[in-house]
Amino acid sequence: MSYFKVLGFNKEPFSTSPDPEFFYLSKEHETALTNILIELRLKRGLSVILGDVGTGKTTLSRKLIQELKERDDFVLHIILDPSFENELLFITSLVKNFEININSAGLPTIVDLRESLERFLFQKGVSENKTVVLIIDEAQKLNENSLEILRVLLNYETNEFKLIQVVLLGQLELHSKIINIPNFFDRISFKCNLNPLDLRETKEMIEFRIRQAGYVANMHLFLDEAIKEIHQYSQGYPRRITMLCHKALKVLILKNKFVVDADFIKEIIDQEIRTGWHRKDLLLQRNSY
Question: What would the pLDDT profile of 176-207 be if each residue is shown by its tens digit?
């Protein structure tokens, strides 16, 4: 029997997979999601979400996709690894994944692909009144050539709106790339940074995921002092919080305990440190309190 069944869950509460049903919307995440949806509805073109590793960018993208799939007037595609070596590979990927027909007798040239993509965008955006959305995760991997391709795509527009909506989610180094490309940076309609959670949000996130997993007992699995230890060690990064809580629940079963307290979390952290399976920056953070 899985550990989450033993503890009274219907699902695993602290999986690191980007399941939108387990995505805790902090105030920052909710603001980002709401603003992106507004930008897409208004067809304003380009939105950029920045955040450090583990701040919830990928899960936010899955939540956005979930929202869009509930509507029949959106056509969307997500790129998970935008490491394209040249324009041909990038445009070919877009044409293939948007299932665009190419009017070419032989092997299509880059000009054929561009023209087919442009016709597709006009057909969907003008004739069918649909919104075409391209979501790019790990956008810090985009090279300068790929960013220029996106800039050109954002030039496809009517007098009223952009024909393609682009959402970039990337690590902080994406900022240094795009800020040095003024004609790309100036096209950003909405931009925001996702920051780690504070203590209150950490508690809310843990309790939210426990409830989402089907836990109905009145007893708190994580005491407040344990949550404080989790927040201080994880620095409020959702992915680190999730992994530490997962470890805590496994040890809870192995020790035949019923509640996670502060000593419990300290023991798990000390074990990571003793065995060398710890982040040096987390250790420095822990030693500062």
Answer: 999 999 999 999 999 999 999 999 999 999 99
d(CA 79, CA 125): 21
Q: What ranges in the chain are assigned the alpha helix state H?
A: 3-6, 27-42, 57-69, 87-97, 110-122, 144-153, 173-178, 182-185, 199-212, 224-234, 238-254, 262-275, 280-287
Please name which of 261, 239, 221 lies closest in space to residue 6, comparing C-alpha atoms: 221
DSSP string covering 6-67, please? HTT-SS-TT--S--GGG----HHHHHHHHHHHHHHHHT--EEEEEE-TTSSHHHHHHHHHHH
Give the per-residue pLDDT at 215: 87
3-state secondary structure (DSSP) of residue 137: coil
Q: Which fold has domain 197-287?
A: Helicase, Ruva Protein; domain 3 (1.10.8)
Q: What is the pLDDT of residues 108-127, one digit of tens each?
A: 889 999 999 999 999 999 99
Copy the structure tokens of residue 69. 């799939």
Note whether 171 and 17 are within 8 A (CB): no
Q: What is the mean pLDDT of the chain?
A: 91
Q: Mean pLDDT, to the nearest integer, of 271-283?
A: 67
Distance of alpha carbon 117 from the chain centroid: 26
How do the domains of the chain map onto residue ranges?
27-194, 197-287
27-194 under CATH 3.30.2000.30, yes or no = no
Give the amino acid at 188: I
For residue 72, give the nearest of 128, 30, 137 by alpha carbon: 128
- Structural contact between residues 147 and 184, judged by C-beta atoms closer than 8 angstroms: yes
In the chain, the percentage of residues whose pLDDT exceeds 90 is: 78
